[in-house]
Amino acid sequence: xxxYLLVLFxxxxxxxxxxxxxxxxxxxxxxxPPLRARDVxxxxxxxxxxxxxFGGLCAGILVASQLxxxxxxxxxxxxxxxxxxxxxxxxxxxxxxxxxxxDALVKLGGQMIAAGVMVWQGVTVITLPVPGVGAVAVxxxxxxxxxxxxxxxxxxxxxxxxxxxxxxxxxVCIAAMAFFLYSYRLWYGYTITDAAPxxxxxxxxxxxxxxxxxxxxxxxxxxxxxSGSMMLGLMLAVAAISIxxxxxxxxxxxxxxxxxxxxxxxxxxxxxxxxxxxxxxxxLADLLLAVVRRTWAGQSPFxxxxxxxxxxxxxxxxxxxxxxxxxxxxxxxxxxxxVAFSVTNTGRTVILTLTGLCLVGLVVLLTPRxxxxxxxxxxxxxxxxxxxxxxxxxxxxxxxxxxxxTAPTSAPMAELSAxxxxxxxxxxxxxxxxxxxxxxxRNR
Length: 444
Known about the structure:
Radius of gyration: 27 Å
Strand order of the largest sheet: 1-2
Oligomer: single chain
Distance between the termini: 79 Å
Shape: globular
Structural class: mainly alpha
Largest sheet: 2 strands, antiparallel
Order of helices and strands: HHHHHEEHHHHHHHHHHHHHH
């Protein structure tokens, strides 16, 4: 675990440190498009944040290759090499789109090429575990098609939710945390070495997202752009593909002692790709709804609009930060709920807990204009929108003072320089700036 923490810290640190220079480069390079009708930010913001994230990815892989335990992942397979090649192609495609813009069909073709390169290097679905049947082998062609489709779907799902400050990065980080817990349990809990690449990919994803979120939370100073969102989606897909079809249920049966316990332990794997789909359930639902909505209206499925889930949260009255937190909550509830159901033997407890949390989430979702007020003792540590209005307890207005007046009349004079005050003192006594005195009004 210490090696994973070291890789996570290095990845996050490099991503964080590179984001500042990348922001300046994006501004100088003109990668700061004007505002569009579907944008929710109020001023042009630079993109190309994916450059910093790709730098953090390379740094994390370099550190992992020098560690004793993690270095074995590099020698046991070609997953790391396939990830770098596919992520590099996807990152380059995103950089071109952030700077000059790329046609939707060309972008789709580039995504398929990146997925094909990884499949050619061995990252592909080999078998599909089916409940009651076991591992069902698929042909190389079927495995290739399933892998390419999975990459394209995840890439576009993450790209679709990149519409609010910190939304895509935070949701991918939550998904990576859930996937890390599950794959780490398979590796160390059941000694399944084929799950090792997925554990490393999840750690790299968490580090990249945490390092970038420090600059991307509302109000964002830089956007990840397609160069970041498509790369994150590809890494999620690679982590899922690298573990799907490679886990032998017999290995877990030897540990659990019964086929029934094995089926329960492998709930997210016995149903093909269940866990990868649950960790991006909201982005995937948004993607499917957008395709159906646009196709029904006679538009292209790639046509941009302002009717995504996060846009609807803003329309019903939620603030920017609150809409992002709501999306975080539901993503974490679905992802970690699936992981918890595969770990615990008391599914009833998990279901009751998830039901209670769902009720809490629905209450928050349906009360967009409710603003809780923090106690006065902690008002200095909370955002201004959660502070109580009015004068502090025990404070009384000055004698003869007008309660409507909140700022002293001498405040503007305090902001003037000494030279300005001297020039103002030389004005005639009966003159007023902008009035009817010597310099204004009718006497001019």
